[in-house]
Structures are given as structure tokens and as C-alpha cells.
């Protein structure tokens, strides 16, 4: 990642971000500090922070100090949401590590997530701009709404697509939108450019989540840090499964499996469903949808200056083409 940060001209800002986040956890209560440190040092692409820095200017140009705190707040809200997301979904692993509720307890995960949200609030206050607070607070609200909004059916297709789009739009894309908006605000952009970058961030977030859901079915387990098909095993309905049922489920096996998710005692049935989705057109159709959102994102960059536009377009390419 360091090579990418250097190529994008944000290596110094990313280093300041990591230094700031690394020094945040000072609680003497180990049952809060250790789980929080566990998630905050687990790695990750820092894609949202990259989006914040590039929306602010990037490309080696000096950026105001406030943008580091805004980017930190975005990353901290994201980390807190992951802790709670893993707790709700009962995910055993995150980025190749045991999740907090698996390593410690349910209560430790709940409090660690709350603690990290509080750290995000501190970073927002230090940024010193009410607009940063407004954008991030709105996104955090949307993340909660998305997390609790289920996709509980695969048919009719239009209804399942609407439920899926609603969920990922709030759970994921809203924070991408906020990352771009607060970067633009900190970088002194005008209202029109803030809007354009926000729309770019939202569409990019949609593409990112869809690719994530595709990779859950077809990605390499060693690079993903978790077994393939984790969403299916936890009873989560995502776009590859929706499309597989709609277009490649002639004998109804997948429909029946979806109806019984959460009640299947034989793991071989889940394994067979996973194999069928992998062999179907579902993952490819879903990736095409991600590419559509990528194109939509790029269309919103027309109002952005040339050097910044090129760097953001590079991020959009990496999001869709990634294999992990």
C-alpha cells in the first residue's frame, strides 16, 4: 500500500493518519483498549481515508491539518461499524484475525465499538468544521439503518434488488460519500464540487460493496483472510446469490436453500449451494453491476480539476478490478 500512497501523492498524509490513530487508544481499561487496538491495527486498505485526502487535493499538494482528523474520523466510524457488524452477523474472522466477540466477548465487542465511535467524535471536534460533523453524522446514521435492514428474499427479483440496493447504499456507500464530501470541505472546494465528489463517493461505495460480495463467493481464501461463502453460511443474501437464483436455478435448489437459511443442519447443502452460485452467472452479473456504478462514479468527476480527477479515477479502477 505504501507504493500506492506514494504514487497518489498522499504518503505523508497517510503516515500522519496512522500516527494519529495509533496514539488514540489510551484507556487504562484493558477490556476496552485491547479489543479497540485489535481492530484498529488489523490492517485494511484505508480506502475511505484515501478518498478523503484525494478529494481534498492530494497529488503532493499541501493539505490543511484538518483533513487528517476528518479522514481519521471516517476510518474510526468504519472500524466501529465493523465491530458491530461482526457482532450482529456472528462473523468469526475479520481480515484473517478472530473478531472481537470471538476473541473476547459479546460485551467487549459492544463496548469497543462504542469506544471507537467516541474516538471518531473526538477527531471530528478537532477538525473544527461543523460541516465535517454534519456529513459524518449523517453517514453514521445511514450505516446503522443499513446494518439493521435485511435482505430476506430473492424473489421477486425487483424487490430483492431494491432491498439489497437500500442496504448497501446505507451500510457502505453513505460513508464513502461522506469521505469524499469532508475531504472536499477541508480542501476548500466550492459547493458544486463538494456535491460532485459526494455523488462520486456514493457510486464508488456501491461498486466497492458489490465487488466485496462477489469476492466472498469467488475470491481466494488466502488473500481474503476468510473462507469463501461466508455470507451464505451466515444466511446473508447478496447480489451474486440473487442473480444466481433469478437466472441459473432451473431445479429450484438455490431457492429452497435460501428459504431454509439459518435452519440447515447439513453443511454439505450449503457447500452445494456455494458451488452452484460459483458456477452460475451470478458473480459475473454482479460484477457488471459494479462496473456500471464505476462508470456512474466517473461521470461525476467532470466538474473536478484534471489532476484530482485522474487520481480519483485510478481509485475507481482499483475498486472494481481488485481481487481481494
Task: Explain the layout of strands and helices.
Layout: H1 2-8, H2 11-22, H3 30-40, H4 47-56, H5 66-89, E1 93-94, E2 97-98, H6 100-103, H7 106-127, H8 130-148, H9 157-186, H10 191-218, H11 221-224, H12 230-233, H13 239-248, H14 253-259, H15 267-279, H16 282-299, H17 306-321
Antiparallel strand pairs: 1-2
Helix pairs in contact: 2-5, 3-7, 4-5, 4-9, 4-17, 5-7, 5-8, 5-9, 7-8, 8-9, 9-10, 9-13, 10-16, 13-16, 16-17
Please, could you describe this protein's structure?
It is a single chain. The protein is globular. The protein has a single domain (2-321), classed as Orthogonal Bundle (Farnesyl Diphosphate Synthase), CATH 1.10.600.10. By secondary structure, the chain is an all-alpha fold. Helix 4 crosses helix 9 (157-186). It has helices at residues 2-8, 11-22, 30-40, 47-56, 66-89, 100-103, 106-127, 130-148, 157-186, 191-218, 221-224, 230-233, 239-248, 253-259, 267-279, 282-299, 306-321; strands at 93-94, 97-98.
The CATH architecture comes to Orthogonal Bundle
Rg, rounded, reads 20 Å
| Major sheet summary line | 2 strands, antiparallel
* Whole-number count of domains: 1
Q: What distance lies between the first and last C-alpha atoms, to the nearest angstrom?
A: 13 Å
**SSE string:** HHHHHEEHHHHHHHHHHHH
Query: Would you report the number of β strands?
Result: 2
Q: Strands of the largest sheet, in order across it?
A: 1-2
**Residues in helix, %:** over 70%
Overall, the morphology is globular
CATH superfamily: Farnesyl Diphosphate Synthase
Structural class: mainly alpha
Strand content: under 5%
Q: Which residues form runs of ≥5 with pLDDT under 50?
A: none
CATH class: Mainly Alpha
Helix count, per DSSP? Answer: 17
Mean pLDDT: 93
CATH topology label: Farnesyl Diphosphate Synthase
Amino acid at each position: 500500500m505504501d507504493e500506492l500512497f506514494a504514487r497518489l501523492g498522499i504518503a505523508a498524509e497517510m503516515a500522519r493518519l496512522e500516527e494519529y490513530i495509533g496514539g488514540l487508544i489510551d484507556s487504562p481499561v484493558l477490556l476496552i483498549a485491547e479489543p479497540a487496538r485489535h481492530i484498529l491495527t488489523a490492517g485494511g486498505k484505508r480506502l475511505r481515508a484515501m478518498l478523503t485526502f484525494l478529494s481534498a487535493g492530494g497529488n503532493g499538494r499541501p493539505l490543511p491539518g484538518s483533513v487528517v482528523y476528518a479522514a481519521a474520523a471516517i476510518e474510526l466510524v468504519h472500524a466501529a461499524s465493523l465491530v458491530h457488524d461482526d457482532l450482529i452477523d456472528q462473523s468469526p474472522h475479520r481480515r484473517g484475525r478472530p473478531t472481537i466477540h470471538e476473541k473476547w466477548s459479546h460485551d467487549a465487542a459492544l463496548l469497543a465499538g462504542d469506544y471507537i465511535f467516541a474516538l471518531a467524535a473526538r477527531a471530528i471536534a478537532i477538525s473544527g468544521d461543523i460541516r465535517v460533523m454534519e456529513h459524518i453524522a449523517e453517514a453514521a446514521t445511514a450505516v446503522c439503518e443499513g446494518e439493521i435492514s435485511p435482505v430476506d428474499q430473492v424473489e421477486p427479483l425487483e424487490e430483492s434488488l431494491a432491498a439489497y440496493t437500500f442496504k448497501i447504499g446505507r451500510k457502505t456507500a453513505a460513508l464513502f460519500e461522506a469521505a469524499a464530501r469532508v475531504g472536499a470541505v477541508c480542501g476548500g472546494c466550492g459547493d458544486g464540487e463538494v456535491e460532485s465528489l459526494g455523488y462520486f463517493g456514493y457510486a464508488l461505495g456501491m461498486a466497492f460493496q458489490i465487488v466485496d460480495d462477489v469476492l466472498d463467493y469467488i475470491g481466494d481464501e488466502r488473500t481474503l483472510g476468510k473462507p469463501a461463502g461466508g455470507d451464505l453460511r451466515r444466511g446473508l443474501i447478496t447480489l451474486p446469490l440473487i442473480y444466481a437464483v433469478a437466472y441459473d436455478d432451473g431445479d429450484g435448489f438455490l431457492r429452497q436453500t435460501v428459504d431454509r437459511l439459518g435452519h440447515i443442519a447439513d453443511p454439505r447443502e450449503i457447500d452445494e449451494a456455494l458451488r452452484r452460485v460459483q458456477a452460475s452467472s451470478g458473480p459475473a452479473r454482479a460484477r457488471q453491476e459494479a462496473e456500471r456504478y464505476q462508470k456512474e462514479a466517473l461521470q461525476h468527476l467532470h466538474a473536478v480539476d484534471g489532476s484530482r480527477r485522474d487520481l480519483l479515477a485510478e481509485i475507481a479502477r482499483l475498486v472494481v478490478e481488485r481481487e481481494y
